[in-house]
Write a structure and sequence with these properties.
Length: 234
Amino acid sequence: MSRNPKDEEKDKEREAMKKRAGESAASVVEDGDVVGLGTGSTAAYAIRALGRRVEEGLDVRGVPTSHGARALAVEEGVPLTSLDVETPDVAIDGADAFDASLNLVKGGGAAHAREKVVALSSDRVVIVADETKEREQLDVPVPLELLDFAVPHVRERVEELGGEFSLRESGGKDGPVVSDNGNVVADADFDGYDAPELAEELDSVTGVVEHGIFVGIADEVHVGRGDSVEVLRR
Ligand code: A5P
Protein backbone atom coordinates (compact mmCIF):
# COMPACT_ATOMS: atom_id res chain seq x y z
CA MET A 1 0.00 0.00 0.00
CA SER A 2 1.52 3.35 -0.99
CA ARG A 3 1.80 6.03 1.70
CA ASN A 4 0.28 9.45 1.68
CA PRO A 5 2.95 11.89 0.30
CA LYS A 6 2.23 14.28 3.20
CA ASP A 7 3.06 11.55 5.74
CA GLU A 8 6.22 10.72 3.82
CA GLU A 9 7.23 14.39 3.91
CA LYS A 10 6.60 14.49 7.68
CA ASP A 11 8.72 11.36 8.21
CA LYS A 12 11.55 12.95 6.22
CA GLU A 13 11.38 16.15 8.28
CA ARG A 14 11.39 14.15 11.50
CA GLU A 15 14.37 12.11 10.35
CA ALA A 16 16.23 15.35 9.55
CA MET A 17 15.45 16.70 13.06
CA LYS A 18 16.72 13.47 14.64
CA LYS A 19 19.91 13.67 12.57
CA ARG A 20 20.57 17.29 13.57
CA ALA A 21 19.99 16.46 17.27
CA GLY A 22 22.33 13.45 17.08
CA GLU A 23 25.06 15.41 15.33
CA SER A 24 24.72 18.29 17.80
CA ALA A 25 25.30 15.88 20.70
CA ALA A 26 28.28 14.24 18.98
CA SER A 27 29.88 17.68 18.65
CA VAL A 28 30.17 18.05 22.47
CA VAL A 29 32.55 15.06 22.63
CA GLU A 30 36.17 16.06 23.22
CA ASP A 31 39.43 14.38 22.33
CA GLY A 32 40.22 11.61 24.81
CA ASP A 33 36.62 11.23 26.02
CA VAL A 34 34.93 7.97 26.95
CA VAL A 35 31.37 8.12 25.54
CA GLY A 36 28.26 6.17 26.51
CA LEU A 37 26.69 5.06 23.24
CA GLY A 38 22.90 5.07 23.38
CA THR A 39 20.41 2.88 21.59
CA GLY A 40 17.76 3.81 19.03
CA SER A 41 17.46 5.67 15.77
CA THR A 42 18.36 9.15 17.10
CA ALA A 43 21.37 8.02 19.11
CA ALA A 44 22.47 6.16 15.95
CA TYR A 45 22.98 9.52 14.22
CA ALA A 46 25.32 10.52 17.05
CA ILE A 47 27.28 7.25 16.74
CA ARG A 48 27.63 7.75 12.98
CA ALA A 49 28.82 11.34 13.52
CA LEU A 50 31.35 10.11 16.09
CA GLY A 51 32.57 7.54 13.56
CA ARG A 52 33.21 10.35 11.08
CA ARG A 53 35.10 12.31 13.73
CA VAL A 54 37.19 9.22 14.59
CA GLU A 55 38.11 8.95 10.93
CA GLU A 56 39.33 12.55 11.13
CA GLY A 57 41.55 11.69 14.10
CA LEU A 58 39.35 12.06 17.23
CA ASP A 59 40.46 9.81 20.07
CA VAL A 60 37.37 8.33 21.82
CA ARG A 61 36.25 5.06 23.30
CA GLY A 62 32.58 4.10 23.46
CA VAL A 63 30.61 2.15 26.04
CA PRO A 64 27.65 0.63 24.17
CA THR A 65 24.25 0.31 25.86
CA SER A 66 23.03 -2.62 23.72
CA HIS A 67 24.03 -5.21 21.13
CA GLY A 68 22.63 -2.81 18.53
CA ALA A 69 24.74 0.14 19.67
CA ARG A 70 27.82 -2.08 19.82
CA ALA A 71 27.29 -3.40 16.29
CA LEU A 72 26.78 0.12 14.91
CA ALA A 73 29.88 1.43 16.71
CA VAL A 74 31.97 -1.39 15.26
CA GLU A 75 30.58 -0.67 11.77
CA GLU A 76 31.34 3.04 12.15
CA GLY A 77 34.86 2.49 13.50
CA VAL A 78 34.25 3.80 17.03
CA PRO A 79 36.64 1.94 19.39
CA LEU A 80 34.96 0.29 22.37
CA THR A 81 35.63 -0.06 26.05
CA SER A 82 33.51 -1.14 29.02
CA LEU A 83 32.41 0.02 32.46
CA ASP A 84 34.84 -2.56 33.90
CA VAL A 85 37.70 -0.49 32.53
CA GLU A 86 36.60 3.16 32.64
CA THR A 87 33.57 5.38 33.13
CA PRO A 88 32.11 7.71 30.50
CA ASP A 89 32.80 11.44 30.44
CA VAL A 90 29.56 11.84 28.55
CA ALA A 91 26.65 9.57 27.61
CA ILE A 92 24.60 10.30 24.50
CA ASP A 93 21.22 8.62 24.26
CA GLY A 94 17.70 8.99 22.87
CA ALA A 95 14.32 9.15 24.62
CA ASP A 96 10.73 8.19 23.91
CA ALA A 97 9.47 11.31 25.71
CA PHE A 98 10.82 14.15 27.86
CA ASP A 99 9.31 17.01 29.85
CA ALA A 100 10.47 20.52 30.82
CA SER A 101 12.21 19.17 33.96
CA LEU A 102 14.16 16.78 31.69
CA ASN A 103 12.45 13.73 33.13
CA LEU A 104 12.55 11.04 30.47
CA VAL A 105 10.81 7.87 29.42
CA LYS A 106 13.16 5.43 27.71
CA GLY A 107 13.10 1.81 26.65
CA GLY A 108 11.25 1.84 23.34
CA GLY A 109 14.16 -0.32 22.15
CA ALA A 110 14.13 -2.41 25.36
CA ALA A 111 17.61 -1.18 26.31
CA HIS A 112 16.64 1.08 29.24
CA ALA A 113 18.29 -1.01 31.99
CA ARG A 114 21.76 -0.79 30.47
CA GLU A 115 21.04 2.78 29.35
CA LYS A 116 20.28 3.78 32.94
CA VAL A 117 23.44 2.12 34.26
CA VAL A 118 25.60 3.82 31.62
CA ALA A 119 23.90 7.21 32.16
CA LEU A 120 24.28 7.03 35.94
CA SER A 121 27.96 6.11 35.50
CA SER A 122 28.59 9.14 33.25
CA ASP A 123 29.73 12.63 34.24
CA ARG A 124 27.36 14.25 31.74
CA VAL A 125 24.20 12.90 30.12
CA VAL A 126 23.13 14.36 26.78
CA ILE A 127 19.78 13.27 25.38
CA VAL A 128 18.90 13.54 21.70
CA ALA A 129 15.34 13.74 20.42
CA ASP A 130 13.14 15.40 17.87
CA GLU A 131 10.44 17.79 18.99
CA THR A 132 7.64 15.21 18.73
CA LYS A 133 8.99 13.61 21.94
CA GLU A 134 8.29 16.69 24.05
CA ARG A 135 5.41 16.46 26.58
CA GLU A 136 3.95 18.89 29.07
CA GLN A 137 3.16 15.88 31.22
CA LEU A 138 4.67 12.45 30.59
CA ASP A 139 1.98 10.05 29.41
CA VAL A 140 3.66 7.43 27.21
CA PRO A 141 3.69 3.76 28.34
CA VAL A 142 6.55 2.99 30.72
CA PRO A 143 8.83 0.17 29.54
CA LEU A 144 9.63 -2.45 32.18
CA GLU A 145 12.35 -5.07 32.10
CA LEU A 146 11.35 -7.83 34.49
CA LEU A 147 12.08 -11.35 35.57
CA ASP A 148 10.01 -13.80 33.56
CA PHE A 149 9.04 -15.55 36.80
CA ALA A 150 7.66 -12.29 38.22
CA VAL A 151 5.21 -11.43 35.40
CA PRO A 152 1.98 -12.22 37.35
CA HIS A 153 3.18 -10.30 40.42
CA VAL A 154 4.32 -7.26 38.44
CA ARG A 155 1.10 -7.25 36.42
CA GLU A 156 -0.91 -7.14 39.63
CA ARG A 157 1.20 -4.33 41.13
CA VAL A 158 0.96 -2.24 37.94
CA GLU A 159 -2.82 -2.69 37.92
CA GLU A 160 -3.02 -1.68 41.59
CA LEU A 161 -1.14 1.49 40.63
CA GLY A 162 -3.82 2.20 37.99
CA GLY A 163 -1.85 1.09 34.95
CA GLU A 164 -2.47 -1.37 32.15
CA PHE A 165 0.21 -4.04 31.83
CA SER A 166 1.12 -5.72 28.56
CA LEU A 167 4.01 -7.96 27.68
CA ARG A 168 5.78 -6.52 24.64
CA GLU A 169 5.30 -8.85 21.70
CA SER A 170 8.38 -9.66 19.69
CA GLY A 171 8.50 -9.13 15.94
CA GLY A 172 11.02 -11.79 14.99
CA LYS A 173 10.02 -14.64 17.31
CA ASP A 174 6.96 -16.02 19.03
CA GLY A 175 6.35 -14.64 22.50
CA PRO A 176 7.59 -11.54 24.29
CA VAL A 177 10.62 -9.38 23.63
CA VAL A 178 13.63 -10.64 25.60
CA SER A 179 16.18 -7.96 26.53
CA ASP A 180 19.94 -8.08 25.95
CA ASN A 181 20.08 -9.18 29.62
CA GLY A 182 17.77 -12.15 29.07
CA ASN A 183 14.72 -10.71 30.83
CA VAL A 184 11.24 -10.15 29.43
CA VAL A 185 10.02 -6.68 28.50
CA ALA A 186 6.58 -5.23 29.16
CA ASP A 187 4.90 -1.83 28.97
CA ALA A 188 2.83 -0.22 31.71
CA ASP A 189 0.33 2.25 30.34
CA PHE A 190 -0.79 5.01 32.72
CA ASP A 191 -2.69 8.18 31.91
CA GLY A 192 -0.63 11.37 32.43
CA TYR A 193 1.60 10.77 35.48
CA ASP A 194 3.93 12.49 37.88
CA ALA A 195 7.27 11.02 36.77
CA PRO A 196 9.19 11.16 40.11
CA GLU A 197 6.20 9.69 41.98
CA LEU A 198 5.60 6.85 39.53
CA ALA A 199 9.35 6.15 39.30
CA GLU A 200 9.48 5.71 43.07
CA GLU A 201 6.47 3.36 43.03
CA LEU A 202 7.98 1.25 40.24
CA ASP A 203 11.37 1.18 41.98
CA SER A 204 9.70 -0.72 44.79
CA VAL A 205 8.03 -3.43 42.67
CA THR A 206 9.87 -6.69 43.28
CA GLY A 207 10.68 -8.50 40.06
CA VAL A 208 11.16 -5.33 38.01
CA VAL A 209 14.80 -5.25 37.00
CA GLU A 210 14.48 -1.67 35.73
CA HIS A 211 11.79 0.71 34.50
CA GLY A 212 12.15 3.34 31.81
CA ILE A 213 11.48 6.52 33.81
CA PHE A 214 14.68 8.58 34.20
CA VAL A 215 14.38 11.29 36.86
CA GLY A 216 17.22 13.74 37.52
CA ILE A 217 19.55 11.88 35.16
CA ALA A 218 19.61 13.98 31.97
CA ASP A 219 21.77 17.11 32.06
CA GLU A 220 20.78 18.33 28.60
CA VAL A 221 18.32 17.49 25.87
CA HIS A 222 19.31 18.41 22.32
CA VAL A 223 15.96 18.83 20.60
CA GLY A 224 15.71 18.87 16.82
CA ARG A 225 13.17 21.60 16.04
CA GLY A 226 12.49 22.50 12.44
CA ASP A 227 15.84 23.50 10.93
CA SER A 228 17.66 23.99 14.22
CA VAL A 229 18.58 22.32 17.49
CA GLU A 230 17.53 23.73 20.84
CA VAL A 231 19.57 22.69 23.88
CA LEU A 232 17.50 22.41 27.09
CA ARG A 233 19.52 22.31 30.31
CA ARG A 234 18.59 21.22 33.79
C1 A5P B 1 16.10 2.32 23.66
O1 A5P B 1 15.68 1.36 24.56
C2 A5P B 1 15.42 3.60 23.96
O2 A5P B 1 15.58 4.09 25.25
C3 A5P B 1 15.70 4.64 22.90
O3 A5P B 1 16.76 5.48 23.25
C4 A5P B 1 14.42 5.40 22.72
O4 A5P B 1 13.40 4.43 22.47
C5 A5P B 1 14.49 6.38 21.58
O5 A5P B 1 14.61 5.73 20.35
P1 A5P B 1 14.44 6.51 18.99
O6 A5P B 1 15.51 7.56 18.94
O7 A5P B 1 14.60 5.46 17.93
O8 A5P B 1 13.06 7.10 18.99
